[in-house]
Amino acid sequence: MYTQKEVLDFINEEDVKFIRLAFFDVAGKQKNISIMPSELERAFKEGITFDASSIFGFEGPEKSDLFLFPDPGTLAIIPWRPMTGKVVRMFCNIFTSDGKPYAKDSRALLQNSISRLKKECGIEMMIGTEVEFYLFKLNEKGEATKEPFDKAGYMDIAPEDHGENIRRDICFTLEQMGITPEASHHEEGPGQNEIDFHYSDALTAADNVATFKWIVNTKAASNGLYADFSPKPLAGEAGNGMHINISYRLVDEKKAGFSGKELAAGGAEDSEENLLPYILGGIYKYIEEITYFLNPTDNSYTRLGACKAPKYISWGKENRSALIRVPATKHGSRLEVRSPDPLCNPYIAISLLINAAIDGIKNKITAAEPIEENLFDNKIATKLGLKTLPQSLDEARKIAYESEFVKSVLGNLS
Q1: Would you say 251 and 114 are in contact if contact means Cβ atoms under 8 Å apart?
Q2: Share of residues in the chain with pLDDT > 70 (%)
Q3: Distance from CA of residue 255 to its chain's centroid?
Q4: pLDDT in tens, 206-259
Q5: Contact 222, 129 (CB under 8 A)
Q6: Are the C-beta atoms of 73 and 1 separated by less than 8 Å?
């Protein structure tokens, strides 16, 4: 975690020639503007202006001046750029011309949600993500095809798995940018891969997802391939998910309502002081209302309910067919939300999950009974009478726009 002074010293001492200031549109697509080192001090003090009317979901031309203020704690060298005349990147917060935080800055939304969780519940949410993607070949014109890079299956090895070296390169690059990859392997689909991250605080986790997608796209292109994060790239094959693993750590015992016994990452599963059941309960209660933001494209709803992607609003212990899974763990407790896909805006997705958790904790909400049956079998699931997730983007949008909970987090969506 760098301070502004440390960043300025680093820039001067390490032969940095370009500074990329990164931010996100409302869909979570990363944007950036490059500045020279001589402009960095001004960026910290006054911000760097840009045309908001040219950014998807931002302002119209009548009020289009917004300002980027770099977050010094996110400084990272871009390792695939030259080491002579280095290029670095920092994520930014967005402000209006009158110095107020910009309402559509999804990174600021997450920062506010994190602060609310600490203030009202005395805990910090820890997030670990599992992001899947396909690698496809390019044609003779350099355009993406739907021909997978290989025909390997789940956790296969070389020579069937052609993605071994690319995943290795991605993991090394992640480490160079200060991100800890936990595991990587070939996934079920042909040409499909997965890389999992070690858990971190929620803001870092969202930053890591954004950086990861950038790295994967860059490394795929440098290998003559195309990386596809869409939820369902190939009909009849496994879709791309972005599973979100959630645990927590205590930062204020009194606000959390504990008697003084410190808990680690959620505490013992059977303890009355364990907040995971309420976190689960809050997410379970609101999962239908927030699906539009976890699964934001038409293609998302082709994935849900097919090839081991969840369809039914449910939870289960160690049950991978349930929407929310509570895994078997030796240390503490965590839960895994299995419906999100990689095209969601991770800052908005995690913000909504945090606010659902807050409501669950404050109102001691608990979910229905856990499901032990295999929900991938539609005959079994139908007999259980479980409610399904929205079946289309239009349905999900309608539910979200009518949700008082979503409005309380994101404001008026109309």
Answers
A1: no
A2: 94
A3: 27
A4: 999 999 999 999 999 999 999 999 999 999 999 999 999 999 998 887 777 664
A5: no
A6: yes
Reported as a single tens digit per residue, the pLDDT across 84-140 is 899 999 999 999 999 999 999 999 999 999 999 999 999 999 999 999 999 999 999
Backbone angles phi, psi at 150, to 5 degrees: -155, 180
265 has pLDDT over 50: no
pLDDT tens, 134-185?
999 999 999 999 999 999 999 999 999 999 999 999 999 999 998 989 999 9
Residue 177 structure tokens: 């940018």
Q: Does the pTM exceed 0.70?
A: yes
If DSSP states are collapsed to H, E and C, what string results for the chain?
Answer: CCCHHHHHHHHHHCCEEEEEEEEECCCCCEEEEEECHHHHHHHHHHCEEEEHHHCCCCCCHHHCEEEEEECHHHCEECCCCCCCCEEEEEEEEEEECCCCECCCCHHHHHHHHHHHHHHHHCEEEEEEEEEEEEEEEECCCCCEEEEECCCCCCCCCCCCCCCHHHHHHHHHHHHHCCCCEEEEEECCCCCEEEEEECCEEHHHHHHHHHHHHHHHHHHHHHCCEEEECCCCCCCCCCCCCEEEEEEEEECCHHHHCCCCCCCCCCCCCCCCCCCHHHHHHHHHHHHHHHHHHHCCCCCHHHHCCCCCCCCECCEEECCCCCCEEECCCCCCCCEEECCCCCCCCHHHHHHHHHHHHHHHHHCCCCCCCCCCCCCCCHHHHHHHCCCECCCCHHHHHHHHHCCHHHHHHHCCCC
Q: What is the pLDDT of residues 321-358, one digit of tens each?
A: 999 999 987 656 899 999 999 999 999 999 999 999 99
> How far from each other are the two terminal CA atoms of the chain, in whole angstroms?
38
Tokens linked to 114: 């994190």
- Could you tell me which of 128, 144, 131, 127 has the C-alpha nearest to residue 170? 131
Please state, in angstroms and rounded to a whole number, the distance separating the CA atoms of residues 277 and 328: 15
CA–CA gap between residue 30 and residue 289 (Å, rounded): 25
Cβ pair 170, 184 in contact under 8 A: yes
On whether the CB atoms of residues 199 and 245 are closer than 8 A, the answer is yes
Token match 């659902």: residue?
A: 356
- CA–CA distance, 79 with 83 (Å, rounded to integer): 8
Query: Tokens representing 33?
Result: 């503007």
